[in-house]
Design goal:
The protein is α+β, with helices and mostly antiparallel strands and about 625 residues long. Strands 26, 27, 28, 29 and 30 form a 5-stranded mixed beta sheet that branches. The protein has a 4-stranded antiparallel beta sheet with strand order 8-7-6-38. A 4-stranded antiparallel beta sheet has the order 10-11-14-15, with no helix packed on it. α2 crosses α3 (about 55-65), α7 packs parallel to α9 (about 150-160) and α8 (about 135-145) runs antiparallel to α9 (about 150-160). This is KLHL11 protein.
Length: about 625
């Protein structure tokens, strides 16, 4: 007996609708009870008026009027092909639709003409699934024609995020004038270099110079010339023939550069969507002696401007937390909550698009003093200290071996293979499929990577291993020499280690690297600044070591007042390592405004990422300056 369901006190035969459609469809195939004919590109379709009217407001209106088609019983549809009409009739009689690349645009056009909203939505959904950098401009054009808001929004976002690639595609040089105008006028373009937009405009204009030359001045007015490096502006922009032949363009440059000099800030005229490379710092305790407090601040250092600013704060105060950037988001995990001073498993996610924090799934374990490492599309929480309740009810902290992985797609944490030894104060770097521990303390306080045999985790096999080679210079931090600071970073498939010392150290500084492919260590002799055997750092160092655009970023506390920043470059040319004289030059960066000066707090953590200019404008408070510390 057929299954039935109760609905509003009535029994409903579940299969009735499906079987009814099957019967009506069969009647059309057999030309049974059909009462109307559709013609499309030479092909005729016998149909039922009531089915067409039920599925399409266009036909419903047609059958209610005294038009010629109504009286003749025939309608010719010249706006679509027979293939598309067959597909639409199949949908009307069955509820199923075949959408594919070679017909989706015509299917969308016909559905829009026939006012078939459901079919139009299905076509738009298909286009959304196919949207990428190669077709985003075409998708935007379709979305504008058919008023597809979701597709238009998605296409605009794709263009903005990938404008560097979009403007280099050959077909982009053939887009119409209004599309170029919209593109260049978009304040949310995430363009890294404004000069690339200028180059595109010149190339687009010269593609059809007779037709497009007259439009160049009005389009050039959308180029943010004050965000173009001065050298490029002088050597390329001002000397471009399209510019030199236009008095309007020359006046625009003069006006913009003059106002920029008065304001002393190119950043004011940068696009809101322009992504700025920053070092983001969260958590930590304030520096009021004897009155320490946890902080919710999220601070941001802009190496290009040598400026500190504040962004949206966390909604809870935390110290000894971990931070990592993944897929354009920032994750802050674990640490000790303030003022309870209890280890937590909290995880918060910062959206660079919304400039806001969201709590996400907690870690499986409470952790502080651990590493949070992005690798192969996931986050890995490694080791650290967790709470333990001892006999008598006292609460203490113990180092752990456990490791867990965060899957961003389904927002879940899961345990994976544990380390072979307990490890806290963990630091790590990641390649495509391996995570190498560069520092960590075992239960005796010894650096587990001190001899160069770095523990590593293979994310594909879920197995821990250890580097076989030993390093030329023993590495320690907080053990043999309390004043030695170890900086580690990954570059060019090599893990680099920089040993820095402060003025009271009895140990020389050092520099060495581990070549992953060769499984080999190399010590590098460098010229240390001044007469020192090592670089002198202040005491009470809070250290952050993300890599920024080829730079090493180090931050330290100076007698509760000033901040030291080191971000000099190391240059690589082919297989030859060249160390510049200023590699270890240390600068002090400090604020110049009042008691609320922006500065990172001890026990905070940092990572490197790109964020939109608009957030920096909204939250920037202090301007900083650099003074030599050596």
């Amino acid at each position: 007996m057929a299954a039935a369901q109760q609905l509003d006190g009535r029994r409903v035969w579940v299969r009735h609708q499906f079987e009814l459609l099957q019967r009506i469809s069969k009647q059309r195939e057999e030309d049974k009870y059909t009462d109307f004919t559709l013609k499309s590109k030479g092909k005729e379709f016998r149909v039922h008026r009531n089915v067409l009217a039920a599925c399409s407001p266009y036909f419903d209106t047609l059958f209610q009027t005294n038009m010629m088609e109504q009286q003749s019983g025939t309608a010719t549809l010249n706006f679509t092909s027979a293939e598309v009409m067959e597909e639409l009739l199949a949908y009307m009689y069955s509820g199923s639709l075949r959408v594919q690349e070679d017909m989706v645009e015509e299917l969308l056009k016909t559905a829009d003409h026939l006012l078939m909203v459901e079919v139009k939505d299905l076509c738009i959904q298909y286009l959304l699934e196919q949207l990428d950098v190669s077709n985003c401009l075409a998708m935007k054009a379709l979305a504008e024609v058919y008023k597809a808001d979701n597709l238009l929004k998605a296409a605009n976002e794709t263009i903005r995020k990938n404008v560097h690639t979009v403007i280099k595609r050959e077909e982009t040089l053939d887009i119409p004038l209004h599309s170029v105008q919209e593109l260049l006028a978009d304040d949310l373009l995430q363009v890294a270099k404004e000069e690339e937009l200028f180059g595109f405009l010149v190339a687009w204009t010269k593609r059809d110079l007779p037709e497009r030359k007259d439009h160049f001045p009005s389009l050039f007015a959308h180029i943010r010339v004050t965000d173009i490096p001065k050298r490029y502006l002088e050597e390329y922009v001002k000397t471009e023939e399209l510019v030199t032949e236009s008095e309007e363009c020359q006046k625009y440059i003069a006006k913009e550069t003059s106002s920029s000099e008065e304001e002393s800030s190119q950043q004011l005229n940068a696009r809101s969507g322009k992504m700025e490379e920053v070092v983001m710092v969260t958590g930590g305790v304030s520096r009021s002696p004897g009155n320490e407090e946890g902080t919710t601040e999220m601070l941001c250092y802009l190496p290009r401007q040598d400026t500190w600013c504040q962004l949206c704060p966390l909604n809870y105060a935390v110290t000894f937390n971990a931070i990592a950037a993944l897929n354009g988001k920032v994750y802050v995990a674990g640490g000790r909550l303030w003022p309870e001073n209890r280890v937590t498993s909290f995880v918060s996610c910062y959206s660079v698009v919304e400039n806001s924090w969201t709590r996400v799934r907690n870690m499986s374990a409470k952790r502080a003093n651990f590493a949070l490492v992005p690798c192969n599309g996931c986050l890995y929480a490694i080791g650290g200290k967790s709470e333990r309740i001892f006999l008598g009810g006292s609460i203490g902290e113990v180092p752990v071996t456990t490791v867990e992985r965060y899957n961003e797609a389904n927002h879940t944490w899961s345990y994976i293979s544990s380390m072979t030894k307990v490890c806290s104060d963990v630091e790590a770097v990641a390649t495509n499929d391996h995570i190498y521990l560069t520092f960590g303390k075992d239960q005796n306080g010894t650096n587990i990577a001190g001899n160069g045999q770095l523990p590593y985790y293979n994310v594909k096999t879920n197995v821990w291993g250890k580097v076989s080679a030993t390093c030329p210079v023993s590495m320690s931090r907080g053990m043999d020499d309390e004043n030695q600071i170890l900086v580690s970073f990954l570059r060019d498939s090599k893990i680099h280690f920089l040993g820095l010392v402060d003025g009271e150290s009895a140990t020389d500084g050092f520099y060495q690297y581990y070549d992953i492919a060769a499984d080999q260590w190399t010590a590098v002799t460098i010229d240390w600044p001044g007469n020192s055997p090592g670089i002198f750092l202040p005491r009470n160092i809070s250290l952050y070591t993300p890599v920024h655009n080829g730079n090493i970023f180090i931050c330290c506390t100076l007698d509760n007042e000033n901040i030291g920043v080191h971000s000099e470059k190391t240059y690589y040319r082919g297989h030859m390592l060249t160390l510049k004289d200023k590699l270890l030059h240390l600068e002090r960066t400090y604020t110049t405004t009042g008691v609320s000066s922006i500065r990172p707090a001890p026990t905070s953590s940092a990572c490197h990422l790109d964020i939109p200019q608009k957030h920096l404008r909204a939250f920037a408070k202090d301007v900083t300056m650099s003074v030599s510390l050596l």
